[in-house]
Automatic annotation (TrEMBL):
GO terms for cellular component: plasma membrane. Residues 378-399 are annotated as: Disordered. It comes from Nocardioides euryhalodurans. This is MFS transporter. The keyword Signal does not apply. Its main location: membrane. PANTHER family: PTHR23537, SUGAR TRANSPORTER (PTHR23537:SF1). Pfam families: MFS_1 (PF07690). Keywords: Membrane, Transmembrane, Transmembrane helix. It is a multi-pass membrane protein. Residues 384-399 have a biased composition (Basic and acidic residues). GO terms for molecular function: transmembrane transporter activity. Residues 11-383 form the Major facilitator superfamily (MFS) profile domain.
Amino acid sequence: MAGGRDAAGLAVAGLSLIAVCYGLARFAYGLFVPVLREELGLDGSTVGAIAATSYVGYCVAIVAATLLTARYGARPVAVAAGVAATLGTAVIAVAGSAAVLAAGVVIAGSSTGLASPPLADAVARSVAPGRRDRVQTVVNAGTGLGVMVSGPVALLTQGSWRTAWWAFAVVAAVVTAWVAVAVPGRATAVTGAGAPQRPGLALPPGSARLMAAATSMGLASAPVWTFGRDIAISTGDLGERASTWLWIVLGAAGLLAAFTGHLIARTGLPSAWAGGMLALSATTTAFAVAGQQAVLFGAAAVFGAVYIALTGVLLVWGTLVHPAAPAVGVGVAFLMIAVGQGIGAPLTGAVSDLTTPRTTFLLAAVVAAAGAAVVPSRLPPRAPDARPRRQERQGKRSG
C-alpha cells in the first residue's frame, strides 16, 4: 500500500495525465472551433460530427483499457494514454482537411478512454481506503487544469492555432514520460473488505442507475463542450479574446472539483449527484439566454466546477458499484458519459443548423434536470477511514 508521499506522487502524476488527455487532447477542440470553422470551412453539422468521432474513440478505448488494465496492470495502459494524446494532438496540428482533423480528434479522444481506468485502478490498489475517494477526485480534477492551461496557450498563439496544438503535443510527451515512472504497474491490492479483484462478467446491482445517470450527463454537457465558446461569440457578444478567457475561467473553476471527495463524505452520493445535475441544468440555461458578459463568465465558472465534480461523483459511484474491479466501475461510468456526448455532439450541431444554438442548449438543460432524478441506491458501505483508528491508538499510548 502506498505511503503518504507515494500517494501524493501518484495523485499529481495522475492529475497531470488527466489534464493532458481530457483538458488538452479532447476538450480543447471546442476552444478552437471558431478558427477551425473559418480555416477548414466547417459547418455546424461537421463540427459536431468531428466531435462525435472523439467520443467514438473514447468508447472503444475505455473498453480496451478496462480489459487491458486487469490483464497487464495500470502502468502500460496509462502510458498508452499519454502516447495517444501526443500522437492525436500532433495530427491535429498538421490537419489541412476535415478528414485529417477528424483522424487527429479520434486519436486524441481515445487517450481519455485509456487514461481513466488504469489511474482509478492504481489508486484503488495502492492508496489506503480512508484516503482513496479523495485521491480519486483529485486525479479527476486534472480536466480543469488542462482546460485552464489550453486557454492561455490559445491566447499566446493567436493567428497560429497549429502552434498551440504542437505545444499540446510536447506537453503530452513530457507527461507520458513522467507517468511511466510514477504510476505503479501491478500494485499489490489492499487487503480487507472491498479489495480489488479481477472483473467478472455480471453487472452488479446498481449498474443500471449508474449507466443511465452517466448517459444523461453526457447528453446534457455536450453542447457546452462543443459549442460553448462558439455561442459565447455568436450570441453573447464576446470577442475572440474574451471568449478565450471564458474558457480559462471554466477550467480554473474545474480545479475546485478536487474537493469532490470531501463533498461526497459530507453530503452523500445521492445529494451530491442531484444537486450537481440541477446546477448543470441552470448553467446550461444561462449559456443559452445570457445577454451580459458577467452572466456568461459566471455560467462558465459554475459549469467547469460542476461538470468535473459530477465526473468525480460518477467515478466514486462506479468504484462502489464495482468494488471487486474498480477499473470496470470507472470504465462503465465514463463509457456512458462518452455515449451520451457522442450522441449529443452531432445532435447539437444538427439541431443548431435547423433551429438556433439557444434551442439546443435549452433542450440540454431539460435533460440535465431529468438526470438529477437518477440517484444511486443500495450502494455497498464505504470502507472505514483509517484515521480514527490511528487517533484511537495514539490515545491509548498517551493514556
